[in-house]
Structure formats: structure tokens, C-alpha cells
């Protein structure tokens, strides 16, 4: 009997089984209404309308206010913290370009912004970012700006009619 039963030997055996199952199910989409990285289906995101008034503040000053914000939920090498994006037209703050750029295989190349004071001096470097030309499969990000949550206060409240 022992010869006919497959035994899982520790973690290595379990991981081998999981790896085989994932390979067998490679074309299965695990979540609906998501945008997947074509090179790695386990890396995906979903943009959902916030459906509330969003205000982004720094030291009491309103940097952005929007009823058209979206929340980005992303799973890649980890489950990332949600990020709120607002339409660029809803940003009140004076933002200037920062020399930093990064690449995301799911969204494209990001451009970063510094917060400028009334004289045009950098008040806070690298406070926000955008994807000026997101990949074709991530065009929903076009025209949206996100702020670093650890540098601002993000408030959500009901939309008053």
C-alpha cells in the first residue's frame, strides 16, 4: 500500500505540488475586472471608483479635492497597500517635475512631482507621481495623479448633493 500513495515530504514537496498546479492553471484568471501583467498573470491590479469626496491635504492645505478618485488595488510580489489616484484636473497644488522615474511592468513608466511653494521653491520633494503614457492595457491610469500616503493626509467623505 505504501508504494501506491504519494507522500508529501516537507515544504519542498508541498511547493512542488503548488508549482505544478499553478502551471496547470496558467490561463485561469483568478479575479474579474482586473488588469493583468501579460508577462506574469499573478501580477494584477484593479481600479475601483472611490465613490466619495476625496481630499488630499498637507499641513492643513488642500492639495487636491475630487469626486472622481479611483482606488488602485495591486497584487504582485506582495499585496500592496491601496493607492488613491485623482484626476490631474482636480489637483490644486503647484507641482513641479522631479528627475526620478521608475518602471512598473504592469503600469508603465512613472514620472514624479515635487510640491512647490508660492515662490516655486521645492517645499516637499517627490510627493506625487503619475503614469504619463501607461501601457495600452493600463490606460485607465492616464491623467491620474497619486500622492504618497505617508506625506499627506487623505480624507474620504460622502458626496453631498
Describe this structure in words.
9% of the residues lie in helices and 45% in strands. It is mostly beta strands. It has one domain: Metal Binding Protein, Guanine Nucleotide Exchange Factor, Chain A. The strands form two sheets. The protein has an eight-stranded antiparallel sheet, with no helix packed on it. The protein is globular, with a radius of gyration of 21 Å. The termini are far apart. Residues 1-8 have low confidence and may be disordered.
Q: What is the compact description of this entry?
A:
The chain contains one helix and eleven strands. The protein is mainly β and about 160 residues long.
What is the count of distinct domains? 1
Major beta sheet, specifics? 8 strands, antiparallel
State the name of the first-level CATH class: Mainly Beta
CATH architecture: Beta Complex
Distance between the termini: 72 Å
Notable traits:
161 residues, mainly beta, Metal Binding Protein, Guanine Nucleotide Exchange Factor, Chain A, eight-stranded antiparallel β-sheet, three-stranded antiparallel β-sheet, 11 strands, 9% helix, disordered N terminus
Amino acid at each position: 500500500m505504501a508504494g501506491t500513495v504519494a507522500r508529501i515530504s516537507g515544504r519542498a514537496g508541498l511547493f512542488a505540488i503548488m508549482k505544478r498546479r499553478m502551471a496547470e492553471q496558467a490561463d485561469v484568471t483568478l479575479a474579474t475586472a482586473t488588469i493583468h501583467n501579460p508577462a506574469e498573470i499573478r501580477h494584477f491590479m484593479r481600479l475601483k471608483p472611490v465613490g466619495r469626496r476625496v481630499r488630499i491635504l498637507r499641513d492643513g492645505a488642500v492639495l487636491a479635492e475630487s469626486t472622481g478618485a479611483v482606488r488602485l488595488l495591486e497584487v504582485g510580489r506582495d499585496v500592496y497597500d491601496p493607492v488613491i489616484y485623482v484626476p490631474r484636473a482636480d489637483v490644486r497644488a503647484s507641482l513641479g517635475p522631479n528627475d526620478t522615474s521608475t518602471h512598473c511592468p504592469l503600469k508603465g513608466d512613472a514620472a514624479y512631482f515635487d510640491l512647490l511653494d508660492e515662490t516655486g521653491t521645492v517645499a516637499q520633494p517627490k510627493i506625487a507621481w503619475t503614469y504619463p503614457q501607461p501601457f495600452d492595457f493600463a490606460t485607465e491610469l492616464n491623467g491620474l495623479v497619486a500622492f504618497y500616503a505617508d506625506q499627506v493626509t487623505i480624507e474620504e467623505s460622502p458626496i453631498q448633493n
